[in-house]
Amino acid sequence: MGLRNSFVAAVVATSCAIALSACSNPFSHTSSATPTNSVSSTPTISESPSESPTPSPSLQVTTYPLYYFADTQQGLRLYREWHKINEVKPIDVGLAALQRLVNSGETPFDNDYKTAWSVGSTVNSIMHVGPLAIVDITLGKLNVGAEAEQLSIDQIVWTLTANDKSVHSVKFTSGGKPLESFVKYVDASGTFKRETDYEVLAPVWINDPGRVDGSSPWTLQNPVVISGTACTFEAAVAWEVLQRTAVVQSGSTTATEGCPTRSLWKVKLEKLAPGTYTFVAKNISEQDGSVASQDTKIFMIAK
After folding, report:
1. Where are the alpha helices (DSSP H) in 143-275?
2. Percent of the chain, pLDDT > 90?
3. Which of 160, 271, 185 is closest to 223 using CA atoms?
4. Which residues share a beta bridge with 126?
5. SS3 state at 113
6. Which of 200, 218, 250 is the last residue of a domain?
7. Are residues 142 and 263 in the same domain?
8. Per-residue pLDDT at 12
9. pLDDT in tens, 27-68
10. Which runs of E-coded beta strand occur in the chain?
11. Pairwise CA distance, residues 144 & 35, whole Å
């Protein structure tokens, strides 16, 4: 797959200079810049008790775009979910996002999605050197093959760069030392950036806006409007609405632009009776008319 190349804990970010070695991974880009300074990702947190009690920090909803993957005719591709968490505002949103993805093994809402990460690995810190983020990680056991190992890197790079727009590239260390590989198949010693969208992302996404603390299902009301993004042949997106296995509505729409540009599509459904439904957005192969990839979301119309 493409890219390929780019929770809570107290962090002491240490100044260091890491030589950016060339990455043999064909999907990575090496950085020509050498770090000359470092900035702590979070301040040191004092563990000394306060002499007088202080008010508890107020909670707020933090929205994290997290990246997962699923299989398509083109191989494993990334899908995005919005995870809304009621919490104290994090100091470093990028670090907090990675710790949700990796440390806590945040599972996707969509049962069709997968993650290479489960509890056992730990993102320890992020050191920022300009637009480069040096992610220090302690690896647990990842039961993945070569392609999914690459996707474990993809998940981190796309999640971090989505939550922290100042980050343009990512390098990995473990215990402050350069990391050679996450498992054994992919060279992780280089510097990773986001690759071209259509090489990494699934051709069709449904823009589920997410749920606070994972509450479900997605509750909508008439008239239902479903939107998403796509990068497909002639911008075509086929769709249908299922109730159990019965198709109750179907049709096709087009995104605002065709591939290689990823753009928005939208569908307004006819009135639906109260109940639970599944919306399916499909990328149809121009070669044989088969379903090359799809995204599905369960939603409910309340009584």
Report:
1. 146-163, 197-200
2. 67
3. 271
4. 135
5. coil
6. 200
7. no
8. 34
9. 333 333 334 333 333 333 233 333 444 445 688 989 999 999
10. 59-72, 75-88, 122-129, 132-138, 169-174, 177-178, 191-192, 204-206, 211-212, 218-220, 225-230, 236-243, 246-254, 263-268, 275-284, 291-301
11. 32
Q: Strands of 59-72's sheet, edge to edge?
A: 59-72, 75-88, 211-212
Count CB-CB contacts under 10 A for residue 166.
Answer: 10
* Rounded (10°) CA dihedral 208, 212, 217, 222: -60
Residues 196 and 64 in one domain: yes
How many other CB atoms are there within 10 angstroms of residue 253's CB atom?
18
Q: What is the mean pLDDT of residues 171-183?
A: 95
Higher pLDDT, 30 or 272: 272
Of the listed ranges 26-40, 141-155, 201-215, the least confidently predicted one is 26-40
What are φ and ψ of residue 148, in 5° steps?
Answer: -70, -25
Q: Which domain, by its residues, includes 185?
A: 59-200
Q: Is the dihedral of CA 101, 105, 111, 115 positive or negative?
A: positive
pTM of this prediction? 0.79
Average pLDDT rounded to a whole number, residues 278-295: 94
Any idea of the CA torsion for 77, 163, 127, 89, to the nearest 10 degrees?
-140
Tell me the mean pLDDT in the region 274-298.
Answer: 94
In the chain, the amino acid numbered 117 is W
Q: Of 200, 235, 268, at which residue does a domain stop?
A: 200
Find the DSSP H helices in 93-224. 93-98, 146-163, 197-200
Q: Give yes or no: residues 253 and 187 share one domain.
A: no
Q: Clarify whether residues 86 and 125 are in a common domain.
A: yes
Residues 108 and 218 in one domain: no
pLDDT of residue 35: 41
Number of domains in the chain: 2
Is 178 inside any structural domain? yes
Strand order in the sheet with 225-230: 204-206, 225-230, 263-268
Residues in the chain: 303
